[in-house]
Amino acid sequence: MTESTIPQPATPVVEELKNQANLEMLMDVPLKISVELGRTRMSLRQTLELVQGSVVELDRLAGDPVDVFVNDRLLAKGEVVVVDDKFAVRITELIDPQNKNGKG
């Protein structure tokens, strides 16, 4: 092998540039964002009895934070706000990524 064909270890600067380039490639990848107001359990009978105007009680109190999911993974908690007559979510807490189940 000649010296030019022996792989040379990358310097920290080169590695950082490669990491930035790799990250930049991902910046335009679309993600599914969803916000969960709460959950409930209902029997099939109760579900079939739902009509327009029915009220479904959720497991959260009014004013409780909502859950913000990215690709079905809990990312944050927030509060519902109105912006230009549309609902939006103000992020109030980011969830620790080390906490796999997103609780607490």
Q: Taking Cα atoms only, what radius of gyration do you get, to the nearest Å?
A: 23 Å
- CATH-wise, what's the superfamily? SpoA-like
Shape: elongated
Q: State the end-to-end distance.
A: 56 Å
Output the CATH class name.
Answer: Mainly Beta
Mean of the pLDDT scores?
85
Proportion of helical residues: 10-25%
Find the count of extended strands (DSSP E, 2+ residues): 4
Strand order of the largest sheet: 1-2-3-4
CATH T-level fold name: Surface presentation of antigens (SPOA)
**Low-confidence parts, pLDDT < 50 over ≥5 residues?**
none
CATH architecture: Roll
Q: What portion of residues belong to β-strands?
A: 25-35%
SSE pattern, N- to C-terminal:
HEHEEE
Structural class: alpha+beta
Main pleated-sheet profile: 4 strands, antiparallel
Q: What is the overall number of helices?
A: 2
How many structural domains does the protein architecture include? Answer: 1
Plain-language structure description:
This protein has a single domain, classed as Surface presentation of antigens (SPOA) (Roll). Helix content is 19%, strand content 28%. It has helices spanning 12-26, 44-48, and strands at 33-36, 66-70, 73-83, 86-94. Strands 1-2-3-4 form a 4-stranded antiparallel beta sheet, with no helix packed on it.
List the helices and strands and how they pair.
Elements (H helix, E strand, L loop, with lengths): L11 H15 L6 E4 L7 H5 L17 E5 L2 E11 L2 E9 L10
Antiparallel strand pairs: 1-2, 2-3, 3-4
